Amino acid sequence: MASSATVNPTDIIKVRQQLRTQTPGARANAFWSVGVEMARKEGIRSLAGGMSASMLREVVYSGIRMGTYELFKDKLHDASNGALSREGLPLKIMAASIAATIGSALANPADLVKGASFLRPLPYRNMRHAFATIYRDGAQAAIAAGTLSVAGGLRSLYRGVGPTTIRGIVLSGTQICSYDQIKQSLKKRGVMQEGVPLHFVASTFAGFFCSVTSNPVDVIKVRLMNDKNHQFKGAFDCVRQIMVNEGPFGFFKGFGMCWARLGTHTILTFLIYERVRYLFGIEAM
Known about the structure:
Elements: H1 2-19, H2 31-42, H3 51-79, H4 89-106, H5 108-117, H6 127-144, H7 149-157, H8 161-188, H9 196-225, H10 235-246, H11 255-279
């Protein structure tokens, strides 16, 4: 939550960039141009939009994926009777993927509201109004189609859950696993010892790796979540349209802000995470 609050302005700018469809590299879509334009036209407070939804999302998403990672490592290691080595990447990737799948899927409604809170004009008065409106719109559409209103409301809240979950798996698979692996390698080779410097170095590399791998999925997720006019038939159609209309670099729109946000977020998360473990007498990750 602390990490998310710190990088919230970069997250807003990143979403605004990803929703734009100018030619890749156009100056008007540069992160500094988008940020300055927001501050000038909407006020500096616009860079703090969606804070409550971001906090709720982190409690569910990061709480589960970070909190259950080592639990699943232990469970998978025991289930394999030691065939999956604790030092190997397969065990780490599998554990991170399971934890991220659960966390990102459950957090999708908060993620949806968070993305909508970054838009202008604001589509909702507050977070409660956002959840209620999204659910009601889905329920009304379901009634009109002759199906259950509850199913329609839930389906509306879970719009884009596929790309959200895939992004969560990709991000956690590179972020948590690379942090774990880099930290383990540096300690094993005697380059660094357990402590803040080691946590900082490992999280810095992890932040870059997960920014590269998650940005394309993030672009698709943002487009689908904000596709109120049903421009896309699904994730694959979204990929096709981006490729045709914007080219391969369209998948890396907002990468500067993605790295600034996710890199900073990763460093702060692991530094705080390791410190909290230490304060509660838990062994370092």
